[in-house]
Design goal:
Shape: globular
Strand content: under 5%
Largest sheet: 2 strands, antiparallel
Helix content: 55-70%
Strand order of the largest sheet: 1-2
Bound molecules: benzoyl coenzyme A
Distance between the termini: 23 Å
Number of strands: 2
Order of helices and strands: HHHHHHHHHHEEHHH
């Protein structure tokens, strides 16, 4: 849809210093870069990488939650979860559309995902073992996602920034439904409270890792921030998330599983214990506990949908032929 009428997205020009400086000046002046603008190939590549990974994460992220739709404990919870999972599907589609404006098709990106060439967020490599995990995902994972995505509403690339505005509004509903679910469990029976605590214990550290590697290990941050794709570093966003989430846990009387967590007056934020980066990189390399299941599920859906894509193409072709014949 978006790719119709694009003029310059594939224009290859010699990237002289003058051209690169002029592009940077537009970025520095907070101008939005639009699909028809000529842009450095490296800027385009950086965006395609991030937007594709983001889109895949939204789509793969439907799986751990979709797993609980049939087992939600009430009609109200089922309706809310179903709506949330549908929202994630929608987010994936806006993001694939945003990537299409950069000249890469949804088919190509999906092929990269199902063949293991493209990444998706580390967080969706973990299993959802109990109903409380649905609360923990909404509260922590969507909470982390909002922290990361609100600044993306100001990303220099117009289509990505605009897609993020609606995504963030919906993520905000998701975060609240997750926290409300955790609150109900935490204020329920002793067993329910234990379920909530167990979910927090398992999801806390993966959520903290979701923000990406420590700034010193982040390959893309410097350039991404110069181009105003990212507005904050991984560690800054991680710190903001921890600062916002600890009081929420205290309020519902759950304990963050970090014995080193304590308020630091000097930095006006919480100090936290060491992050298990070996676990993070192992997951990022595709060895997470649910990695194979997630890719198998996506591949199955992609293969089973082939006839629908073929039918849609055949119909579009027929309409085009009819239009030409009528002219
Ligand atoms: N998982 O240089 P860095 C959701 C990779 S879904 C896997 O710091 P960058 C939701 C990174 O790709 C929300 N890989 O990278 C859905 C790079 O490898 P490559 C998902 C990770 O891009 C359903 C390498 O590590 N959100 O909310 O500057 C239900 C070095 O990293 C991860 C987004 O995708 C990771 N966690 O910063 C509920 C947000 N972290 O590509 C909720 C958009 C890093 O060189 N993305 N890597 O091979 C971003 O903001 C940035 O891409 C990141 C990473 C902050 C994630």
């Amino acid at each position: 849809m978006y790719s119709q009428g694009l003029i310059n997205s594939d224009t290859q020009i010699e990237e002289s210093q003058e051209f690169l400086d002029a592009f940077q000046a537009r970025i520095d002046a907070e101008e939005k870069i639009e699909p028809n603008d000529v842009m450095p190939q490296a800027y385009k590549k950086m965006l395609v990488r991030q937007i594709a990974q983001h889109a895949h994460s939204e789509i793969v992220g439907m799986l751990p939650e979709g797993n609980w739709v049939t087992r939600a404990p009430s009609l109200r919870r089922k309706a809310a979860l179903l709506a949330k999972v549908q929202d994630e599907g929608g987010h994936g589609l806006y993001l694939y559309s945003a990537a299409e404006t950069l000249g890469v098709s949804r088919e190509e990106l999906t092929e990269q995902l199902v063949t293991g060439k493209a990444k998706f967020s580390s967080i969706f490599n973990y299993p959802t073992l109990s109903w409380a995990d649905i609360g923990a995902i909404g509260w922590l994972v969507d909470g982390a996602a909002i922290m990361n995505q609100i600044p993306l509403c100001r990303c220099s690339y117009g289509p990505y920034a605009r897609a993020m505005i609606r995504v963030c509004k919906e993520e905000s509903f998701h975060q609240r439904q997750g926290y409300e679910l955790m609150m109900s469990l935490a204020q329920g029976t002793e067993k329910q409270k234990q379920m909530a605590q167990d979910a927090l214990n398992r999801w806390w550290w993966p959520s903290v890792m979701m923000f990406g590697p420590h700034d010193a290990e982040s390959t893309h941050s410097d350039q991404s921030m110069r181009w105003k794709i990212k507005r904050f570093t991984n560690d800054d966003l991680r710190q903001k998330f921890i600062n916002a989430t600890v009081p929420q846990a205290t309020f519902i009387d759950l304990k963050i599983p970090d014995k080193d967590l304590r308020w630091n007056d000097d930095k006006e934020g919480y100090d936290h214990g060491p992050i298990d980066w070996a676990e993070f990189w192992n997951v990022v390399k595709g060895n997470g506990p649910m990695a194979r299941d997630r890719i198998t599920a996506r591949k199955k859906a992609w293969d089973e949908g082939e006839w629908v894509r073929d039918a849609a193409h055949a119909y579009a072709e027929k309409r085009r032929a009819e239009k030409i014949a009528a002219e």
